[in-house]
Amino acid sequence: MEVVYGIHAVETLLRSRTRPVERLHIAQGARATRIDQILDLARAQSIALRFEKNFTLERLAGSKAHQGIVAICGAKKYTTLEELLASKHDPAFFVVLDQVEDPHNLGAVIRTAACAGVNGIIITERRAVGLTPAVAKAASGALEVVPVVRVANMVQALEELKKAGIWIVGVEAGAPREWTEVDFRSPIALVLGSEGEGIRHLVRQHCDWTVALPLRNPGVITSLNVSVAAGVLMYEVVRQRRKTPVR
Questions:
Q1: 10, 43, 65, 90: which has the fewest C-beta neighbours closer than 10 Å?
Q2: Angle at the Cα of 224 (from 221 to 228), degrees rounded to 5?
Q3: b or e along 111-136 (b: 16 or more beta carbons within 10 Å of the residue's beta carbon)?
Q4: Which domains are assigned to the chain?
Q5: How many CB atoms are located within 10 Å of the residue 140 CB?
């Protein structure tokens, strides 16, 4: 079983019905319209309800940011790379995260990916955060709709994407092209690196292009937050495809 907490994350979990929910823990005396709506959803699905003191919710969630509600549910399953490639839209649109360790960054990327119509996200097994409750909270429900693949060997995964006709675009400071100088209307996988190290050397070598976002105060700020950079690039893909759709 797994924990999902936060009003929006729990509401999306119940509405999507993507995994079984065993019970909800609700703060005693909680008074919020959206919590009442969640309780109505839970009763309609015959989900057990438990009203608890605040410290119990903090213990269950492992966080004070539970917003008065915690769900105990089946674990979120990772998608395989084969399943992801079989279900992709045309043109494909993936985001690849190379050893991103901060759960809030991963959750924020998943949330933006859901809004931008990304087909799926690929993450690494080692030196990277997985699908934790903190990730689910930061994703604000998007974890229920965006497939996530976890791979042991990122280089092999990129080779599989290339075999499927997908162009690999790495994002890093100092790249020879700016982010608007690549045609994102083709099948694309955006690759972003870890918070501290960026894209690893071998992963960079398997990118077809690398692009940069300009920094106006490079002597003070040396890089963008990975979730911010991912958001800028994802919406550049959206902009190009809306302006001149692929035929």
A1: 90
A2: 150
A3: bbbbebebbbbbbbeeebbebbbbbb
A4: 2-73 (3.30.1330.30), 81-243 (3.40.1280.10)
A5: 18
